Every structure is written in C-alpha cells, then in structure tokens.
Amino acid sequence: MRKPFVAGNWKMNMDGESSIALVKGIAAELDGDIRERVDVAVCPPFVYLAEVVSAARSTGIAVGAQDLYFEKNGAFTGEISTAMLKDVGCNYVLCGHSERRHVIGETDELINKKVTAAISGGLLPILCVGELLEQRDAGKTEEVVEKQIRAGLAGLNEARAMAVTIAYEPVWAIGTGRNATPQQAQEVHAMIRGLLAEMYGQKLAEQTRIQYGGSAKPDNAGELLRQPDIDGLLVGGASLKADSFAAIFRSV
Ligand code: PEP
C-alpha cells in the first residue's frame, strides 16, 4: 500500500517571513489522523531551507530542495551539494523539474547525475518527467516520458531506485491552470508503473510513488488522487497558501 505523498514546490517565491508563516499555517492543518494518511513536504528556495526546516520540526512536514549539484564540493560557483542540503535538514530534492529542463536547459544526463548524487548522499529524489504540448499532440507522450525515466534512473540498481519518487508533470499543465484530466494522467501513470516493472520488477513498481503535477488545485485534487496509479501530487501555485495546500492534501 503506497502512502499518498503531496509536495509543494514554492519555486522562486516567498520571503523569510512569509515562508515561516506558510509552514506554520500548513502545520496547523496537518493535525489528527491526516498525518498518518499522507506524507507532506514543502520545497522552498535554498536560502530559506534552514529556517523552514526549523519551523517544520515536529510538525510532520518534510522539507525538500528544488535542485542540487552532483559534485561533492569545489569550484562550482552558485551551486549547492547534497551534503549541504543534508546539513540543513532536507529529506527530499526535486530533480529535473520542467522549469530546470526547459528554462535552464538541463539535460537527461545532468539530471541522472543529480538523482544519483542525491541517493548517494542520503536524499530522496523526486524525479520530474513530462511532455511538451507539441509532443503530446504528436502522440509522443509515452516515448518522451519513457526516455526521461530510463535516462533519469540510468545506472541505479533496484535498491537505489527504491529511494526515488517519480512526478509526472505534463509541461503544458504546469502553471497554466489547465490540468491533465484524471484519465489522461492515469494513463501515463500506469505506463510509468509498467515501465518500472519492466526495468526493476513488480516489487519496485508497486512500491514506487508516482505523483501528478500540473495545475493541481483543491477542486481537482480528489478526482486525480482517486486514480489507482496516482499516489500524490506535486503542487506549485496552490502550495503557496496554507488553506489551498491543506485542502489538497486533506483530499486524500
Ligand atoms: C510544479 O511546479 O511542479 C507545478 C506542478 O506547478 P503548478 O501546480 O503551479 O502547475
């Protein structure tokens, strides 16, 4: 049985004060038995990680980073290593978010190095994959997603791949207000689970959590989460307010 996992990606938003207020607001909503029913994480910008970790202590909220660099240390100006993220108390890290792929220009090879470094350093990567609108329109969704997953997990054995959460985020649905229908998302999630079974066997495929991301909101979260292969949500815009984020994770 996979425990639902809802994560908020704050992207390049918030400041120190509003970050703390948001974590406190989320914590107030993560009460009672909801904590047993869903894993909740937030991914603030690097500079607020330490204070968010501190505000999230004992609340049940896990903290993730939005990115990392794969090298251990050295002359990599502006970059942040796995050890640094562990040092400030992160548990998770997003790898290959669509904005890093399509705005910053990250390749599958670089993303694979990041996923590998995260696992080696004891972080839990959330590997984000998803097709562009023109790729969906050309009937290439499965091909694109399969390539991203095979490349993202390249070189990982089953034990290491167990640490990975996959987030299926169709690029055309991110920040656009246009979510994939639950059926469209389920179709790709089932394909991803089948691919994981082919790559690593049934056990890993059944244990791996696959989140959907792309304009998830309180009013569509329940229906998305009811799909058999959707195990959680990666939420952007709607994770910036405690009430909308809570309404989403409460809908599990
Ligand atoms: C995201 O940033 O991963 C995301 C899904 O954003 P939004 O929910 O705003 O579409």
Write the topology of this structure.
Blueprint: E1 5-9, H1 16-29, H2 34-37, E2 39-43, H3 49-56, E3 61-65, H4 82-87, E4 92-95, H5 98-104, H6 108-120, E5 124-129, H7 133-137, H8 141-152, H9 158-161, E6 165-168, H10 182-200, H11 202-207, E7 210-213, H12 218-225, E8 232-235, H13 242-250
Parallel strand pairs: 1-2, 1-8, 2-3, 3-4, 4-5, 5-6, 6-7, 7-8
Helix pairs in contact: 1-3, 1-13, 8-10, 12-13
The protein binds phosphoenolpyruvate.
Which CATH first-tier class would you pick? Alpha Beta
* Fourth-level CATH superfamily: Aldolase class I
Q: Give the neighbour order of strands across the main sheet.
A: 1-2-3-4-5-6-7-8
Number of helices: 13
Spans with pLDDT under 50 lasting ≥5 residues?
A: none
3D shape:
globular
CATH architecture: Alpha-Beta Barrel
Largest sheet: 8 strands, parallel, barrel
Rg over CA atoms, rounded to whole Å, is 17 Å
Distance between the termini: 14 Å
